[in-house]
Design a protein that fits this description.
Pfam families: BPD_transp_1, BPD_transp_1_N. 77% of the residues lie in helices and 1% in strands. By secondary structure, it is mostly helical.
Length: 324
């Protein structure tokens, strides 16, 4: 019952945050020059002013900004994200067809960066100031300093152009007509370079933070007490040190969800992945307000849910933390 009340309270707290994000994003987008009609007319090479005025009236863009905002909020309260005038279908369908690609990219990048970063950070901490520690720290600094788009281009040049091992872009080989496990293997092959390009930077974050956290925990009193009682090195590392050293890393993992969503825009554009990142870029170029607002709404929900899950994992790792 306490867990249910905690989740209910967090959801109620998140509603004003999501509302503020939607209102602020809507008003900021409206401050930008141009709208959907301008983009459509530009693609057509021009149109009669009367036709443009009629089209803007049909889309409801002739109304004041506050009236447009109120209409959008009323539809959003009914879980209606509106109509995409660029893709000629409901925004919900557009997002549903792209969401799974972005989720696969995010989960692959964050999970691989977290697991490898935590393992390397703990390994470096146990051999602090040794040659292995220096090599790992140097590689982490290199990955941290390298922009994701530059790393992505290097991967394409090496594995696609020079070695011809991996496909240069897309989510699957359309002409192969794969089904079943062959289809998922094809998707995994196409996602290998994007996941690697997006994860290496975050791997450096987790590795450096985990190394510092393990070194701090190793000097605490309860670790020295457990060592004095005869606890083995493996039990001491995994049961006492790792469990406590993971807390700041879990916090960083929850906070970086929004950063990964932003970074996926660049990666999906470079590798031509049909995900939310590329859809957001296209929506900005085409001035597709409803689709862009739908992406912002969906991403805000994802970030809120992940932060709630992070707090739950926090309480599971450290029983001293209570959910209040």
């Amino acid at each position: 019952m306490s867990l249910f009340l905690y989740l209910l309270r967090r959801i109620l707290q998140a509603l004003p945050v999501i509302l503020l994000i939607i209102v602020g994003s809507f008003l900021l987008i409206k401050l930008a020059p141009g709208d959907t009609v301008d983009a459509l007319v530009g693609d057509m090479g021009g149109a009669d002013p009367a036709f443009v005025a009629r089209l803007r009236q049909e889309y409801g863009l002739d109304q004041p900004v506050l009236v447009q905002l109120w209409r959008y909020l009323v539809k959003l309260a009914q879980l209606d994200l509106g109509w995409s005038y660029v893709y000629e279908q409901p925004v919900t369908q557009v997002l549903a067809s792209r969401l799974w690609v972005t989720l696969l990219l995010m989960l692959g990048a964050l999970s691989s960066a977290f697991v490898v970063g935590v393992a390397l950070g703990a390994f470096a901490a146990r051999r602090a100031y040794s040659a292995a520690d220096n090599i790992i720290s140097t590689l982490g600094l290199v990955f941290y300093a390298m922009p994701s788009f530059f790393l992505a281009l290097l991967l394409v040049l090496l594995f696609s152009v020079k070695l011809n091992w991996l496909p240069v872009g897309g989510i699957r080989d359309i002409g192969a007509f794969h089904t079943g496990w062959r289809l998922w293997l094809d998707i995994a092959t196409h996602l290998l370079m994007p996941v690697l390009a997006l994860s290496l930077i975050y791997l450096a974050f987790y590795m450096r933070l985990m190394r510092t956290s393990v070194l701090e925990v190793m000097d605490l009193d309860f670790v020295r007490t457990a060592r004095a009682k005869g606890a083995g090195s493996s039990r001491l590392m995994f049961h006492h040190i790792m469990r406590n050293a993971l807390l700041p890393v879990i916090t960083l993992l929850g906070l970086q969800i929004s950063t990964v969503l932003g970074g996926s825009v660049v990666i999906e554009t470079i590798f031509s992945l049909p995900g939310l990142g590329q859809l957001a870029y296209t929506s900005v170029v085409k001035r597709d307000l409803n689709t862009l607002m739908g992406i912002i709404f969906l991403c805000s929900i994802i970030v809120v849910v992940v932060n709630i899950l992070t707090d739950l994992v926090y309480a599971w790792l450290d029983p001293r933390i209570e959910l209040k």
